[in-house]
């Protein structure tokens, strides 16, 4: 009998989706679909992995959450937290109170990752600017040392890996800011959740980042931006929230970056990676997400994952 063919490197990439792809940005908002509907539909669309989304959207009782996901054939890949560590040691206690709650629930689901998103320099509901878009040297130092401390505590207490998510309208957004953050942090503690849509929104090249900092890529979020809408957003200086409402994030393969080269570059890393679909579209009609999710899953199968 001939030997079995070696598995494709892409087979080490596990695809999932997230509440974000159902228009969920907040733990409780009447504009969002109920969590039961999200779970039903994400399973129906063909995904086996999900993220927790904003803490409190899905049940926070570990037993109930395991029951609800398990009976739908779903597993959890990660939890998500927002932090403002650039503000220095004074925010540590409040930060840890939130992070420890999310990390505890994440560990209880069997997940191994905690996605850390830097706080917005705009208000996440009104889009009003509340901080400078640029950090001082001292604030960069607080951000780096605070993130390393957070990653160490999360690893030692909960066994989770911290992956930091560069995000539009935060201080870790552009190529220059992402590289500065990576160069300032310990690779043994801090890696990236590369969001292809946010990085493109901020002018970055995902394939280049993977090829240059491959050892720091610990997790992927898959999304695309509509180049025409993005050009208008950049020209007008539109904040991220209103840009989403204008449709700046679009379903693949209608936007950029092309996901096939991104996935091919990620497959060359020879690492086990999650690739979680996150199509920002808050708010959205409740019947819109499921057809998009089905088409996106079908498209990604065509990309070999």
TrEMBL record:
Superkingdom of the source species: Bacteria
Pfam family, any one: AP_endonuc_2
Domain Xylose isomerase-like TIM barrel, first and last residues per copy: 39-290
Record GO terms (molecular function): isomerase activity
Keyword Nucleotide-binding included in the entry's annotation: no
Keywords: Isomerase
Keyword Iron-sulfur found: no
Name of the protein this chain belongs to: Sugar phosphate isomerase/epimerase
Origin species: Streptomyces blastmyceticus
Species classification: Bacteria, Bacillati, Actinomycetota, Actinomycetes, Kitasatosporales
């Amino acid at each position: 009998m001939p030997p079995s063919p070696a598995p494709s490197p892409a087979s080490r990439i596990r695809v999932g989706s997230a509440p974000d792809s159902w228009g969920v940005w907040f733990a409780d908002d009447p504009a969002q679909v109920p969590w039961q509907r999200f779970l039903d539909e994400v399973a129906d669309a063909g995904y086996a992995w999900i993220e927790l989304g904003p803490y409190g959207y899905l049940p926070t009782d570990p037993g109930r959450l395991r029951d609800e996901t398990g009976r739908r054939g779903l597993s959890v890949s990660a939890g998500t937290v927002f932090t403002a560590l650039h503000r220095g040691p004074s925010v540590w206690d409040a930060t840890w109170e939130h992070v420890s709650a999310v990390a505890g629930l994440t560990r209880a689901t069997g997940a191994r990752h905690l996605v850390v998103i830097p706080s917005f320099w705009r208000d996440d509901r009104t889009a009003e600017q509340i901080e400078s878009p640029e950090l001082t040297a001292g604030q960069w130092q607080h951000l780096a040392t605070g993130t390393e401390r957070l990653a160490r505590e999360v690893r030692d207490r909960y066994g989770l890996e911290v992956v930091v998510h560069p995000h539009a309208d935060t201080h870790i957004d552009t190529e220059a800011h992402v590289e500065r953050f990576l160069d300032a942090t310990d690779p043994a503690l801090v890696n990236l959740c590369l969001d292809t849509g946010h990085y493109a929104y901020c002018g970055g090249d995902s394939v280049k980042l993977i090829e240059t900092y491959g050892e720091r890529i610990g997790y992927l979020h898959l999304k695309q931006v509509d180049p025409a809408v993005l050009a208008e957003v950049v020209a007008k200086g539109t904040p991220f929230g209103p840009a989403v409402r204008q449709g700046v994030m679009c379903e693949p393969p209608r936007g950029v970056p092309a996901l096939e080269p991104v996935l091919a570059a990620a497959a060359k890393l020879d690492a086990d990676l999650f690739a979680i679909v996150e199509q920002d579209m808050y708010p959205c009609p409740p019947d819109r997400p499921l057809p998009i999710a089905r088409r996106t899953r079908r498209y990604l199968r065509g990309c070999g994952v």
